[in-house]
Amino acid sequence: ATKAGEPVWDLATLFPSQGNWSAEDYLGLDTNRLIEFTDGCLEVLPMPTLLHQLIVDYLHSLIKAHIKSGGIGGLVVFAPLPVKFRSDLYREPDIVYLSPDRVAAMGSAKYPEGADLVVEVVSEGDEARERDYNSKRAVYAEHQVNEYWIVDPERKQITVLSLDDSTKLYREHGVFKPGQQATSVLFGGFAVAVDDVFSQPQP
User: Fold this and answer.
1) DSSP-assigned letter for residue 166
2) What is the tens place of the pLDDT at every residue in 19-72?
3) Which residues pair with 62 in a beta bridge?
4) Can you tell me the distance from the alpha carbon of 150 to that of 134, in angstroms, rounded to the nearest whole number?
5) What global pTM score does this model have?
6) What is the 3-state secondary structure (H, E, C) of the chain?
């Protein structure tokens, strides 16, 4: 029998083992945690902090206002929302922009397939940093996400990566630091002060 303070091991037997999850199993999960899905395996993401969520909210508001005022169209949404990149690969970007064409192509689908711009706010810890700077960069480039913003509260910098049409790899549009404005390639005229991003009010 399970003792007090131990995990409920028997509960784990109700779920597939790593490597044996299907997309249907993954999408059927009912949890308040952000979870990603790759090749039959689940990856539970860190719980976001208040600062993380304030940054996400701030950038989401700015991007939403820009696409509305510029008549660009499309949708900008925030996590939790699984984004499908292939049948066995789903990610949960902090912010996702979907172009009008991508929205139209969704039809009645519950979840978007691919994205045109994604933003990841780096969570604390080496594992989260490696995920956002390396593994997600590779995934988003492979699946032709036009622009990828890595927003790093610890380093107080914003890295903007733009997809190179010829190589289909990311090139560094800029690493923007305090005192600078981070700019977009996809959204001409869009700029955000780095200082403002990392100075969100906290209680």
Assistant:
1) T
2) 878 888 777 777 666 777 787 888 888 888 999 999 999 999 999 999 999 889
3) none
4) 11
5) 0.84
6) CCCCCCCCHHHHCCCCCCCCCCHHHHHCCCCCCCEEEECCEEEECCCCCHHHHHHHHHHHHHHHHHHHHCCCCCEEEECCCCEEEECCEEECCCEEEECHHHHHHHCCCCCCECCCEEEEECCCCHHHHHHHHHHHHHHHHHCCCCEEEEEECCCCEEEEEEECCCCCCEEEEEEECCCCEEECCCCCCCEEEHHHHCCCCCC
* Secondary structure element (H or E) that encloses residue 68, with its range: helix 50-69
Structure tokens at 191: 């700029």
- The residue type found at 37 is F
CB atoms within 10 A of CB 43: 15
Q: How far apart are alpha carbons 78 and 67 in whole angstroms?
A: 15
Banded model confidence at residue 76, pLDDT cuts 50, 70, 90: very high
